[in-house]
Each structure stands twice: as C-alpha cells, then as structure tokens.
Amino acid sequence: MASRKPSAGQISASAFSGQPNRRNFLKTSAAVAAAGIAVPYFHTSLSAQESNPADSGRMKLGCIGTGSRWDGVGPNAMEFADCVAVCDVDKRHAAKGVKVVEDRQKRTPVAHEDYRKILDDDSIGVVTIVTPDHWHTKIAIEALKSGKHVYCEKPLTLTIEEGKLIAKAVEETGKTFQVGTQQRSEMGARFLQAVAIVRDGRIGDLQEIECRIGGAPASGPLKTEPVPSELNWEMWLGQAPLEEYIPRRCHYEFRWWYEYSGGKMTDWGAHHVDIASWASGKDQSGPVKVTPISATHPVPLNEYGMPTRDNEYNTATAFKVALQFEDGMKMIIRDDEENGVLFTGSEGRFFVNRGKITGKPVEDLKDKPLPEDLMTEIYGGEDYKHGNAHMRNFFTSIAAKKQPVSDVFSHHRAMTNCHLANIAIRLGRELQWDPEAQQIVGDDQARSMQAREQRKGYEITV
Predict the structure, then answer these.
(1) Which terminal residue of the chain has fewer beta carbons within 10 Å of its beta carbon, N or C?
(2) How many whole angstroms from its chain centre is CA 427?
(3) Rounded to 5 degrees, what angle do the CA atoms 283, 289, 290 make?
(4) What does DSSP say about strands 320-324 and 330-334: parallel, antiparallel, or unpaired?
C-alpha cells in the first residue's frame, strides 16, 4: 500500500525528475515505430526538465488549450504549480485563459497560438492538454519528448494506434502522465468503492458489466460559414482533413464528428468503460470478440446506429455492442438505460453512477464493511480522500516518480475497447481481436481502421 505523501502544493520543484520506465507493455513496437515521421519544427531539448522552478519554488505550468473544458482543469493545476504560459488557436480562448491566471495567481502568463512555443520553454516542467481529441496524441508525445510531465484530458486518443504510440513515449521518457478520467478520483469515491466491491468478491465471479453511456445527438445538415478572424481554423483541423468551417464542427461540438473524436462511445466510454476495465482487472488486456447489436432510432441510420448524411454529426447516435473476453466475461456498451455502470456477478449485482451506488452488495457493507484500506490500496494512495483529488494525485505522483491512478497504459486499453466498438458499428459486423498482439484478426478493412491517415505537416512523430 502506498504511503502518505505531503501536500502537492508544498512540494518544491527540485523534487521532480524522471521515474523508472514501465517495462514489457508494448508487444508490437515494430508496427508502432512505423506509424509516424518527423516534423521539422520539433524542439527536443531536455535540459530544463524540472530544474528551473518558478519564483515561488513550485513547478512552472504551461496550459495547451483553454476552451470550456479547461475551466475544470487549468485552475485545478494552478493549486500546485505556477502557470506562466497559455496557448489556444482561438484568441478568445487564449484571452480567457490569461484572465483566469491573472485572477488566480496575480501574474500575466505569455499567450501563444502555437503550442510548440510552450514546449520550447525549458523552464516549464508540466503541461495540461485540453484540446480536441484529434490533437491529444501529437501534442502529448512532443511534450513528453521535451521533458515535460503531462496531464491530458480524455478521451486520450483518436485511434488504437495512437494509444500504442503514447504508451511507448511514456515508457521511453519515464515522465508522469495523468489522463483526465476524474471518475477514478471522484469525490465520494463511489466508483472506487464499486471497484473494491468487485475486487473483494462481493458479487462472486464477475459475469457481465453494462456500460450505459448515452447516445450522441443528431444534428441534421449544417451550413458552412466564414472562419472567425480570431480562430486559426487550419491549425485547429490539424491531422484531420481540410474542411470548410462549420461552427458546430468546432470547439465543444467537435466530439460528435468522427474526424475529430468518437462520439459518446469515446466521450463517456472513456469514463464508464475505464471503470469497468479497472474493476474487472482487464485494464492491461482486452476482448477477443466485439459484436454490434442492431439499434433502432428515429433518424436516418444504418442498421447499427451510424448517421449516413453529409454535413451533419456523424458519430453513432444509438448502439449496443458486446465485448466478449477470453474468460467468458462480457462487457456491454449501450446508449440506452440510466447512465452508469451495472455489475453482475454469480452472487449479486449493483449499479453505480455519479450520483449513487445501489444494490444489495452495497447494502451489505453496513454489516460487513470492506477490508480496511482496500480502496487506498487499489487507488495507490490517499489522494482520493482530499479535494481536487485527481490533480493532486498527478502532482504527488510526479514527486513520487511514479505513474498516477489514471495512467496511460490502462487508459489505452479502455479506449481500445471503445475504438473497437466504433469500428464494429461503422462496418456493421463482428470483429475478432488479439489482445496480446493488439491487432484485429482476419479483417483487413477493419484492421486498417486502427489508424488514420494524417494530413501532411501534422503527422505524429515517434
């Protein structure tokens, strides 16, 4: 069981350095190495790392992406580090970021449009990445290579191959990387308690997990408009194909477009599928078969819930997918039913979401509580008992030279489940998956969808 750590806000920058690499994770390194080529601009100096603290003695922070979701990330990071730079391709977002830093830390950060300016600053030791999903992997890998610890919002990746690349980069650089799946550190610890109930055998042998994540919205055809003068639309698109500007392609609503995200399958799957993988102990493995089950919905769809019209949201609006594991356990990802996770075992079942945890196994805890410190052992420490737990865990993990509770390796596996489900939905057929080789088996078209073509100039480097 991990020992108690001092408050991250009191840890000096001199305490931070690299940590031992995680070994024996990637089994397909040859395929991974072939996935990217160099970008001329990239700055590779590792000279700064964490040796140049801010005037306060704390780490210097750079915030890449300052849109709406950053409001729940950047200020939390500023509890433990001094923000000296912000970056966004939308000048309106960057200006908002500057004001937030000024209000909270009484300093004016440098504002950039190009994230590489932050990576070039050797005094910055840690970055937050709160961009659209299709930018996460490229920025994260370059940040790791520039010697920075990374906190990146979920869903971490656009494709299965991107997950392999980030895992490889974390393994090689030894940097601490926290994924923003805050449910692992949720106040009230309902999800952590759910994991402990399963791990302690309170429902017997785990047989089935339902991840109820809701469906993505439908939009109808949308019109193009002139690009706002404050927005660098070409850079916002990044690796994705060039498209005319549609306001509802951009910013928050990017997640309903397959070019930039995976709809609810990845947006909420990154939370609930992650919890299911964590509880079942399958967060370093995966299914052997992925089967889409027909869905019905009152908008034009294919049989499995995929929108079919141009110039509209194009992620699955209604779906039910079954993931079968080698030991017989089944994971269902579905759009209907009450949002949350339902665990079913040979001796009982219970339900958990962000508002409650219910069922007889939960009621039985009154007379037979969980073993003392089991949740602390599973979590890897006691940060979950404190406010701002997820960010706190990130910074205490940097100081302890270890990976945090929401590590890249387990998140990559959970996201692989979601990406596989999306591929099965789009193709409308069952997939066979080799979790050891991390490859789709016997279906060349489906296997080609493990990666995406990247637009010239925005390739992901390894």
Answers:
(1) N
(2) 24
(3) 85
(4) antiparallel
* Tokens 């504002």 found at: 111
Q: How far is CA 154 from the centre of its chain?
A: 3
Q: Which two tokens stand for residue 118?
A: 């932050």
285: its two tokens: 């493995």
CA angle 400, 24, 275 (to 5 degrees): 65
Q: Whole-prediction pTM value?
A: 0.87
User: What residues contact residue 201 under an 8 Å CB cut-off, 6+ apart?
Assistant: none
Does residue 183 sit in helix, strand or coil?
A: helix
Tokens of 345: 């075992």
Question: Distance (Å, rounded) from C-alpha 147 to C-alpha 126?
Answer: 9
Contact call for residues 124 and 414 (beta carbons, < 8 A): no
Cβ-contact 204, 348 below 8 angstroms: yes
Task: Give the helix ranges, DSSP H, for 212-286.
Answer: 233-237, 264-267, 269-280
Contact 273, 413 (CB under 8 A): no
Q: CA–CA separation, 444 vs 458, rounded Å? A: 26
What single-letter DSSP state applies at residue 384?
Answer: G
Q: Which of 261, 219, 249, 240 is nearest to 422 (CA)?
A: 261
Residue showing tokens 């039985």: 364
Residue 414, classed as helix, strand or coil, is helix
Cα Rg of the chain, angstroms: 21
CA distance 391 to 270: 17
Q: Please write the tens of the pLDDT for every residue from 156-208.
A: 999 999 999 999 999 999 999 999 999 999 988 999 999 999 999 999 999 99
